[in-house]
Amino acid sequence: FGPLWSRQNKMSDDELSVSKGSKGNLKKEFEGLIHQQLNSQHQQIREAFKRMVSMIVDSYSARQALEALKDPIKKDSGLIQLKGLSILGALVKNTGHDFHVELATKKWMDRLIKLARSTRDERVRDKVLQLMVDWANQFQLQLQLDEFSIALHRLKAKGIELPPPTEKGKPRHRRTKSNQEKGATATAGTEGPSTSLELLLTNIQADVSNLELGLQSQEMLQEGIAEECRKHLQKIQVILSTDLPDQAMYEFINLSDQLHELLGLYDAVYTDSTPEGHALDREVSEMKKLDMQIREEQELKARKERELEDLTLELQSAQEALRAATDAARLRSLSGPRNEKDKRVHDMLTQVVSNCANVKQAAVDCKIKMQEEKAKMLQENARFLKELEENLMEFPTLVEKAKIGESKAFLLLKKLYTIEVNTRKKLYNKLQELRGNIRVYCRVRPLSAKEKAGPGGDSIMSYPADGEIVVREPGGMGKTRAFEFDTVYNDTASQEEIFEDTKPLINCVVDGYKVCIFAYGQTGSGKTYTMQGPHENPGINRRALQRLFDLVEERKEVEKCVVSVSVLEIYNETIRDLLCDKMDDKVKYEIKTHPLDGQYVENLVNFPVTSIQHIDQYMAKAEKNRSSGRTNMNEHSSRSHMVLYVVVRNTNLQSGVTTVGKVSLVDLAGSERVGKSGATGDRMKEAQAINKSLSALGDVISSLSRNDSHTPYRNSKLTHLLKDSLGGNSKCLMFVNVSPASYNCNESINSLQFAFRARGVVLGTAKKNVEQPKIEVPHVRQ
Q1: What's 713's DSSP letter?
Q2: First-to-last CA distance in the chain?
Q3: Contact 768, 511 (CB under 8 A)
Q4: What torsion do the CA atoms of 116, 119, 125, 127 make, to the nearest 10 degrees?
Q5: Least confident piece of the model among 383-392, 404-413, 535-544, 663-672
Q6: Which of 125, 317, 362, 732 is found 20 to 30 A from 65 (Cα to Cα)?
Q7: Residues 6+ apart with CB under 8 A from 225
Q8: Sign of the Cα pseudo-torsion (446, 450, 453, 459, in order)
Q9: CA distance linking residue 507 with residue 499, whole number of Å
Q10: Each residue of 469-503: pLDDT tens digit?
Q11: pLDDT band at 445 (very low <50, low <70, confident <90, very high)
């Protein structure tokens, strides 16, 4: 086709309005014009092509034209494909930037690469490769069209031989090199180019390092380093369009990304594009010029004064010589010249007197001239000083405006940084949810009045960023340890804030998923307060159950929900039913496994509930029956692990499908050191049983984090009961509660290390539990 017409031959206004008004039929019109070009005579082809080019006026029309070209390029006939590719190449030459941008997409490049690799017609393959090489060569310096160069690198990486670019519209024919030519080329290529590329790569890396140092400290910013880096960026764009080894190409691409980022920061920090900033730069420049002029005038003045002093000294010497000569001449004149010699001396002395008089007059004239120049210089200095004072009066205002501009730039950078951090954290949390990791929330309780008054009551916790906590060990060394969790709550976090981040898991229970929430930490760290809380400020348990009943109420028109509750405790490795009216030693509570419900306790009392008030009655009964005691660490210390089970059987009234959701709310007893807690007698036995079960829980977490083939769930009743929550089809959330007091530093660090290991356990994606009609529900004692 070639350049058939100029872009000046556009459509008339009427034609343009008609074309814009019928965008819905634009693709069909393009298809008709393409069909006309594929099946008509030469003159009709030219007219149809000119019409097609005139219709491509924006991104939408360019996209429609490319959509119309897809079918001819996909045809089985090689001749039709060649004509379609010729039309595409001619449109690139005769249209504008909108068409180039719509073509330079990964979708179109993939389509052309697939065509080049799958076609059996060598003419079609050569045409595709020639077009892609020409486009990459034509648009190699336009960043918005870099998809052409990227596609070319992909072809090279697949080992496809590429033709040379077209010269003046005529492609250079490839010829097969002889073995001698290939050897010579390979030998020549191993020397100069690789060395020069390595040298260029080293120089660019050095300048990138210098620019990074300059951005960190303005004193270390080298003059002209940003302009040098911009030149490097242009060189890299040119180099990436050539044939490079894969390793070199990756290194140059990485350097290009670094240069883009660093130059963007440089422009944001050091380039002030506001009018106030430009005015300040102009004023500073003018002040520098005035200061330079004043210095030059002062140097000129000092030089003139030195010349005047030298002339004054010469004048004094000449005057003394004149007086001496005058006295000698007077004496000789009185006696008169006695001979020829005296006459010559007399003439010489007369000449000297005349010269001295001339020198004296010249010195007087020079002095007058220098005095005039000095007065003029003083006037200029006074004018410069006045202008300098006026500029200095305006300088604070300009500086203040510049500071405002810099603060805006800083706030913008800070905002962009915050957005980027939050985006990455959301993506990370989404990834963790897909992987099924145990989510870990860290909560730090406030210091008690007793801790503040006594020794070791200073806080050792700090929070540098969201999701991070740093523990500073007490002592002179001041060693710090940093931990990162999904969420970190400081000592000012409320119960409402804690539950807001837990609410999405509660919603999953009504949808038929298993959820486990448990609190871990040393005794007195706030686990029971987080899980249960006081009646006036309830914790996770009551808020979660209230949320369940709210969801049941919302869905009562379409779903029938049955909610049941049971509560147990593990005391000294023995399971006890906390809702049983009377403890019966004959009843055995054994842990069983059900294919749908997972782990359950045989003979455990299970009560149906219909409201939160109903559950409050059972919870009060369970709290009354739970084992607790007093230690030096906690006045009301839980001496057992308490587990609250809530099962939601949800039947869809339309489909009849029943889903079974279960939430396990676990309040673990606190780990403790006997030396600190002062436990004796029964409290000692309880502490040993608690520490043993928590140690078994630590072994299970370590085994899961290492992906061991065997996990020791049966080493403890606690781990056996939590088997389906820690390693099965469940969503699991762990609260690690720690004390901020330096007195509890070692216990807090141990709890944080345990939680950090638990955060790496991958459970897999949880699945909805759908109840099959033929599966019998395990018998429970009502």
Answers
A1: G
A2: 88
A3: yes
A4: -100
A5: 404-413
A6: 125
A7: 207, 210, 211, 214
A8: negative
A9: 12
A10: 999 988 766 688 999 998 999 999 999 999 998 88
A11: very high
| CB distance 692 to 716 below 8 Å | yes
Q: What is the spatial distance between Cα 730 and Cα 663, in angstroms, rounded to a whole number?
A: 9
At 479 the pLDDT is: 84
| 518 phi and psi angles, rounded to 5 deg | -140, 155
* φ, ψ for residue 69, nearest 5 deg: -85, -10
To which residue do tokens 């060189």 refer? 235
DSSP 472-520: E-SSSS--EEEEE-SEEE-TT--HHHHHHHHHHHHHHHHTT-EEEEEEE
Phi and psi torsions of 566, nearest 5°: -150, 150
Helix (H, G, I), strand (E, B) or coil at 191: coil
Helix axes 59-74, 78-94, angle to 10 degrees: 160
Mapping DSSP to helix (H, G, I), strand (E, B) and coil, where does residue 11 land? Answer: coil
**Which residues are within 8 A (CB) of 87 and not within 5 positions of it... i.e. 6 or more apart?**
1, 34, 37, 49, 69, 72
Which residues are paired to 664 by β-bridges? 516, 645
In sequence order, the β-bridge partners of residue 658 are 651
What average pLDDT does the structure give for the chain?
78
| Residue located via tokens 């005769």 | 94
User: Any idea which residue has 């006997």 for tokens?
Assistant: 674
- Which residue from 515, 582, 521, 588 is spatially nearest to 547, judged by alpha carbons? 515
pLDDT at 435 over 70: no
d(CA 726, CA 700): 9
42 contact partners, CB below 8 Å, separation of at least 6: none
- The per-residue b/e assignment along 678-690, b for 16 or more CB within 10 angstroms, e otherwise, is ebeeebeebbebb
Cβ partners under 8 Å of residue 364, min gap 6: none
Neighbours of 239 (CB within 10 A): 16
Smallest Cα–Cα separation from 384: which of 454, 288, 312? Answer: 288
Tokens of residue 222, six digits:
């080298």
Indicate the residue type of 703: S
Longest dimension (CA), the chain: 164
Q: Supply the pLDDT for residue 469.
A: 93
| Cα 85 from Cα 78, distance rounded (Å) | 10
Q: Which residues contact 450 (CB under 8 A, 6 or more apart)?
A: 457
Q: Which tokens is 455 given?
A: 């020794």
How many residues does this entry show for the chain? 782
Percent of the chain residues topping a pLDDT of 70: 77
The per-residue pLDDT for range 18-66, each reduced to its tens digit, is 344 455 588 888 888 888 887 765 567 778 888 888 999 888 999 999 9
Nearest to 96 by CA among 164, 206, 8: 8
The encoded tokens of residue 738 equal 């720690």
Instruction: Specify the residue for token string 């969801």.
Output: 551
Q: Are 747 and 740 in contact (CB under 8 A)?
A: no
Average pLDDT over residues 516-529: 89
**Closest to 103 (Cα-Cα) out of 76, 133, 67:** 67
List residues bridging with 736 in a β-sheet. Answer: 442, 520
Token duo for residue 215: 């951005």
CA gap 315, 356 in Å, rounded: 8
User: Who contacts 137 (Cβ-Cβ below 8 Å, separation ≥6)?
Assistant: 165, 241
Distance CA 221, CA 677 (A): 59
Q: How far apart are CA 210 and CA 480, in angstroms?
A: 31
Q: Is the pTM of this model over 0.70?
A: no
- Using DSSP's 3-state secondary structure scheme, residue 738 falls into strand
For 642, what's the count of Cα atoms within 13 Å in the CB-facing half-sphere?
Answer: 23
Neighbours of 761 (CB within 10 A): 22
Q: Is 166 helix (H, G, I), strand (E, B) or coil?
A: coil
Question: Is 437 in a helix, a strand, or coil?
Answer: strand
**What's the pLDDT band for 678 if we cut at 50, 70, 90?**
low
DSSP state of 222: P
